[in-house]
Here is the input.
Amino acid sequence: MELQVHTREVAVAVDEVDDLLRELHRRHAPALWGYVLNLTNGDRARAEDVVQETLLRAWRNPQVLDESRGNPRAWLFTVARRICIDEWRTARSRREFPTDEVPQIAVSDRTDDVLQSWLVADALAQLSEPHRAVIIACYYRGRSIDEAATELGIPAGTVKSRCHYALRALKNVLDEMGVTR
Here is the structure.
C-alpha cells in the first residue's frame, strides 16, 4: 500500500511539473525564441535547437520553475546564451554551413579532353615517322633528351632539332585542321 501512495505522490508531482512547464512555455517561449533567433543571426534551425535544448534543461531542473527562487525568464535566457556560446566554440559551428538548397555535385565532363586527344592523335599521324617518334618519346613518355636519344638510337643534338621541327610541323597540322588556341 505504501508503494501505491508513493507512486501516486510521484504522479501528482509529475503532473504539477508538467503544468508548470506548460505555463513556463506559454509565458516565456516567444521572448526566448526572439532572443535566441537574434543570437543565432537569424538561423531558424539553430534557434529552434537552442530553444528546445533550453526548455529540455528546464524540464530536467524543475527547481527553476519555482518563482520564489528567482525569475525563470532570466534563467532561460542565461542558459540559451550559454548554449549558443558553447556551440560557437565547438568545431561543429565552423564545419557546418546552413543553406536553403542542396548543392549539386559537380561532375567533370571529359568530353573536351577526349576530343582534344583525338585531334592530337590525328595530327600526330600526319607527321613523318622520325618527328612522331621524337614527340612521343619526349612528351608522351616523359623522356629526357639523352634518354630519347638512347631509345631512338640517334644523337642528342638530332633529338633537339627534330623536337623543334616536329613541334612546328604539329602546330601547322593543327592549324590546317582548324584547331585554335
Summary: Confidence is low (pLDDT under 50) at residues 1-12.
